[in-house]
């Protein structure tokens, strides 16, 4: 038993030695008052608001107090309110001018009262409403007795009392707040955090220990001057308890989805892919015509693509345009229009970047791009009107459809960590055979990640390529959903601080 008592006394002494001077002052005031607000503790401990709040948070971490935090609406002075609290409201200035000059001409009062036009109108309206003045025959007349006119108004008294919690206002003060709030810049309403606390039994024991065995002056900050000589050997330092709970600090870090995009790009570069470039505002030629989509295709309708009004895109070299035109007219049996091919659109898919690359690509060659794409889709948990796509092509004389499936499976495993992957036959105008890549999400079930296939000869030959080309366009946003554990695609672009803070570095 004696040993337990000694241990308790030792623990209390350690706790006492871990308190800063500010914490001690706040704790003493709190024990005296039993329960108090931060504002009351500021006066009692003679500390600033910041010092009190900091001390309360540290004492709460050490479990010496029970801290309560509430959000309260507070009326504070606005820009004009600060001015009027010092100089007086415009109606007080106008009233002083009228008292000095008795009945005054309306135009004289406007010019000589020292008020702006807006202030004069507000002041005159306020005085008329209180029946202190009237306007008769172009003159402003005092209607009240001078001693009545000199009394402070409700608005003036309220202005002097600010800042104040709105929940504590009397009916008269609420009326004054409503009247002043109608006028620009006098009053502002803010929601502030209000702290209140009460001491625990442990706190009382710590203070009793300090009274019984004074700790003396404690050094809280180690300075260069203190360490230069031998002085540090003679002083007593405040104890630091590394086991005490402290507020979480969220260091600056890059947005989690942006980091994921960088990882995808780095991994593809590591695998020998070269990055492709292309404009966000694209021509119909590269996005549709070069990819063997006829000019009557439904994807070229305004309901499926964003058009850039008033803009006309440049076409590539004449020979490329002629070869694409011949291929369309031969295969689709219609009259191909060059003017339509010049239409400017917001890039709806990343595959247009592959089309742009083909005339300049090396054989063998591997290329990729992470492209921002735009489609007028209905936004939901799996779709966005603005999204990212990771686009890729591989050119090689001996490449096959099996190589494509193996590549896609590897991407899904590496970039999502998914355990279940499946392929479904699909159709795209520019690939044959074509396949859809699906990955199983733990919450949403099977999700389509993107499409892939072998470029048709109708795409490659007009662009000067005579070897097989495997191609894919994957929704990298959906890949990120797996990697980051997200079940709503919108979360990737969220400003939700709680989610952003929880993401790893």
What features would you describe in this structure?
This protein is an alpha+beta fold. It has 3 domains: 2-74 and 193-237, Orthogonal Bundle (Arc Repressor Mutant, subunit A); 77-190, Arc Repressor Mutant, subunit A, CATH 1.10.10; 258-280 and 348-502, Bira Bifunctional Protein, Domain 2 (BirA Bifunctional Protein, domain 2). It has 22 helices and 19 strands. The longest helix has 16 residues, at 2-17. The radius of gyration is 38 Å and the shape is flat.
Question: How many strands appear in the DSSP assignment?
Answer: 19
| Number of helical segments with 4 or more residues | 22
Q: In this structure, how is the largest beta sheet organized?
A: 7 strands, mixed
CATH architecture of the largest domain: 2-Layer Sandwich
Helical residues, percent: 40-55%
**Class based on secondary structure composition and strand pairing:** alpha+beta
Strand ordering within the main sheet: 10-14-15-19-18-17-16
CATH homologous superfamily annotation of the largest domain: Bira Bifunctional Protein, Domain 2
CATH C-level of the largest domain: Alpha Beta
Give the arrangement of secondary structure elements:
Elements: H1 2-17, H2 21-33, E1 35-37, H3 38-45, H4 49-61, E2 65-77, H5 79-87, H6 90-101, E3 104-105, H7 106-112, H8 117-129, E4 133-136, E5 139-142, H9 146-149, H10 154-161, E6 164-165, H11 171-181, E7 187-199, H12 201-212, E8 218-219, H13 224-228, E9 236-237, H14 256-270, E10 274-275, E11 281-283, H15 284-289, E12 307-312, H16 318-332, H17 338-341, E13 343-346, H18 351-357, E14 365-374, E15 386-395, H19 401-416, E16 421-428, E17 431-441, E18 445-455, H20 457-460, E19 469-475, H21 476-483, H22 497-502
Parallel strand pairs: 8-9, 10-14
Antiparallel strand pairs: 1-7, 2-6, 2-7, 3-5, 4-5, 11-13, 12-13, 14-15, 15-19, 16-17, 17-18, 18-19
């Amino acid at each position: 038993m004696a040993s337990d008592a000694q241990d308790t006394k030792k623990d209390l002494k350690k706790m006492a030695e871990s308190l800063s001077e500010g914490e001690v002052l706040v704790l003493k005031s709190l024990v005296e008052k039993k329960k108090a607000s931060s504002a009351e503790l500021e006066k009692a401990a003679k500390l600033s608001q910041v010092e009190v709040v900091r001390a309360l948070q540290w004492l709460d971490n050490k479990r010496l107090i029970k801290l309560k935090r509430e959000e309260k609406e507070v009326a504070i002075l606005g820009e004009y309110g600060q001015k009027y609290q010092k100089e007086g409201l415009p109606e007080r200035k106008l009233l002083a001018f009228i008292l000095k000059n008795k009945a005054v001409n309306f135009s004289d009062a406007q010019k000589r009262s020292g008020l702006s036009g807006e202030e004069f109108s507000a002041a005159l309206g306020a005085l008329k409403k209180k029946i202190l003045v009237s306007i008769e025959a172009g003159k402003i007349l005092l209607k009240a007795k001078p001693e009545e006119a000199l009394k402070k108004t409700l608005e003036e008294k309220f202005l002097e009392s600010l800042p104040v919690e709105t929940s504590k206002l009397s009916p008269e003060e609420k009326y004054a707040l409503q009247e002043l709030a109608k006028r620009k810049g006098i009053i502002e309403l803010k929601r502030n955090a209000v702290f209140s606390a009460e001491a625990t039994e442990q706190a009382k024991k710590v203070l009793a220990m300090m009274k019984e065995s004074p700790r003396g002056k404690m050094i809280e900050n180690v300075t260069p001057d203190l360490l230069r000589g031998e002085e540090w050997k003679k002083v007593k330092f405040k104890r630091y308890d590394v086991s005490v709970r402290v507020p979480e600090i969220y260091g600056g870090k890059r947005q989690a989805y942006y980091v994921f995009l960088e990882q995808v790009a780095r991994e593809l570069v590591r695998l020998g892919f070269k990055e492709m470039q292309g404009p966000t505002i694209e021509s119909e030629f590269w996005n549709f015509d070069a990819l063997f989509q006829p000019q009557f295709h439904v994807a070229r309708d305004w309901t499926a693509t964003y058009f850039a009004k008033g803009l006309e895109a440049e076409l590539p070299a004449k020979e490329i345009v002629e070869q694409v035109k011949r291929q369309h007219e031969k295969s689709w049996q219609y009259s191909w229009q060059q003017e339509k091919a010049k239409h400017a659109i917001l890039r709806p898919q990343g595959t247009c970047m592959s089309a742009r690359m083909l005339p300049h690509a090396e054989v063998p060659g591997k290329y990729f791009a992470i492209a921002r794409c735009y489609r007028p889709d209905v936004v939901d948990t799996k779709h966005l009107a603005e999204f990212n796509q990771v686009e890729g092509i591989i050119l090689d004389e001996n490449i096959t459809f099996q190589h494509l499936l193996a590549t896609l499976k590897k991407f899904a495993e590496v970039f999502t960590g998914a355990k279940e992957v499946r392929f479904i036959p699909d159709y795209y105008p520019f690939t044959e055979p074509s396949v859809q890549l699906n990955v199983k999400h733990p919450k949403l079930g099977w999700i389509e990640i993107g499409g892939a296939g072998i470029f048709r000869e109708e795409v490659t030959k007009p662009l000067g390529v005579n070897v097989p080309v495997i191609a894919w366009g994957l929704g990298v946003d959906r890949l990120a959903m797996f990697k980051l554990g997200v079940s709503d695609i919108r979360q990737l672009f969220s400003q939700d601080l709680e989610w952003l803070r929880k993401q790893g570095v």
